[in-house]
Structures are given as structure tokens and as C-alpha cells.
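Figure 6 in text form: structure in, sequence out.
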């Protein structure tokens, strides 16, 4: 009985890893993806988190798939990473997906993870979509509807051997942080910022959401304590 966790090194996926460890003990693997993003801070955090939990970290390079994408997170993009809340970005883009949406990224990640799950005899894949990212279809591959469809596809396509676990798909980031604080998640090792500097920019959508989630729990993000 094994679990495979999609691990980006951020708050959501790291909390998923903590949940998987609580349930499956030592029978947990993690998978990190390089997809052509502008920096590797999140991959470094994924390795630090995996080391903390004594979990083997598999790595996969999917960068070639996104060669033609102009998503602002990617190295080949002509777009700058927006320094605005997601709601502001959606309003400015008149309901279109935000520029930090990597086309069908979760679908690709889950398909690749399903193949590895079969190879490593894992019965479940954990990943961390949540309601805040799905709101307004900013990230349509984070919605409950998307998760349900992928759940069915992975289960059938794996010969009914692999299931998806998205424990936060209908919850908010503040709920994720609350669960992580209960589990003692080492959030000081994580990285969420879309920029790759030494410190979080505090201005991009994910930085804003992260800071607000900790504040909603009466806590301070450990990455901001000395800023």
C-alpha cells in the first residue's frame, strides 16, 4: 500500500505530503516536475521537504511540452509575472485565465504520475488543488469538476489500480495552513513565490494568498518572520 505525492515544494503539496505520511507511513514517494519555469526555487524546496520527511523524490522534465506556451511562469515567455491579486487579474483579463496558468499542467502531471504510480505499485496519487485557485476559473485544472473527471480517467486508465486524492479541492488555503499547523509541517522549507529571488516578493498572487492564509490562522508565514 503506497502513495505517490505530487510535490512542488509549496504549501499545498507539502501539506498533502504530510497527510500521506500520516496515513501511509514510510510507504510514500514524491514526484517533482520541471516544466520550464523561470526559477528552480520550488524544486529546491521540494527536495528539502522530501529530505525532511525521509521520502524518495522522483523528478521528471516536462519542459519540452510547454515550449510554445507564453505563460508568464515559463522561461521562454514574453510576459512578466503579474504583481496583483488573482481577483484583480481576472477582472483585468475579463474572465480569461490568469497568465500564470500553465496550460493543462495538472492534467499532464497527473497522467505522468499515474504511469509512475503503476510502475512503483502505488495505489493513490495525492495532489493539492484548492478552491481559491479554482475560483473564477483562474486555474481551471484545480476545480472539483476537473478533479472528478481526472479521478475517473486515472482509475479506469490504470486498470482500476490507482486513485486520486485531492484532500483540499473544495477547501481554501487557510484550511490547508490550519491542517498543516496541526501536522507540524515545516513551512519554513517551502516556497510559493512565482519569483525566484532570495525572499518572497510579497506581490504576486500566490504570495498574497499565502500570507493571508497564515494570517487567517493567527500565524505568521515563517518565510516572512525576518522581513
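Output sequence:
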Amino acid at each position: 500500500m503506497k502513495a505517490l505525492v505530487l510535490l512542488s515544494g509549496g504549501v499545498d503539496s507539502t501539506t498533502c505530503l504530510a497527510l500521506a505520511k500520516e496515513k501511509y507511513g514510510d510507504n510514500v514517494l514524491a514526484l517533482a516536475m520541471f516544466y520550464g519555469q523561470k526559477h528552480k526555487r520550488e524544486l529546491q524546496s521540494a527536495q528539502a521537504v522530501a529530505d525532511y520527511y525521509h521520502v524518495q523524490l522522483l523528478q521528471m522534465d516536462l519542459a519540452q511540452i510547454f515550449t510554445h506556451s507564453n505563460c508568464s511562469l515559463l522561461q521562454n515567455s514574453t510576459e512578466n509575472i503579474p504583481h496583483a491579486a488573482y481577483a484583480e487579474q481576472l477582472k483585468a483579463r475579463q474572465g480569461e485565465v490568469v497568465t500564470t496558468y500553465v496550460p493543462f499542467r495538472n492534467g499532464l502531471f497527473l497522467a505522468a504520475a499515474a504511469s509512475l504510480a503503476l510502475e512503483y505499485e502505488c495505489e493513490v496519487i495525492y495532489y493539492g488543488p484548492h478552491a481559491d485557485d479554482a475560483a473564477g476559473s483562474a486555474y481551471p485544472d484545480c476545480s472539483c469538476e476537473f478533479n472528478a473527471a481526472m479521478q475517473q480517467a486515472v482509475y479506469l486508465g490504470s486498470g482500476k489500480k490507482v486513485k486520486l486524492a485531492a484532500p483540499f479541492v473544495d477547501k481554501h488555503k487557510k484550511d490547508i495552513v490550519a491542517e498543516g499547523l496541526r501536522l507540524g509541517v515545516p513551512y519554513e522549507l517551502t516556497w510559493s513565490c512565482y519569483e525566484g529571488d532570495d525572499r518572497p516578493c510579497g506581490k504576486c498572487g500566490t504570495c498574497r494568498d499565502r500570507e493571508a492564509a497564515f494570517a487567517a490562522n493567527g500565524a505568521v508565514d515563517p518565510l516572512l518572520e525576518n522581513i
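Caption detail: The chain has one domain: 3-216.
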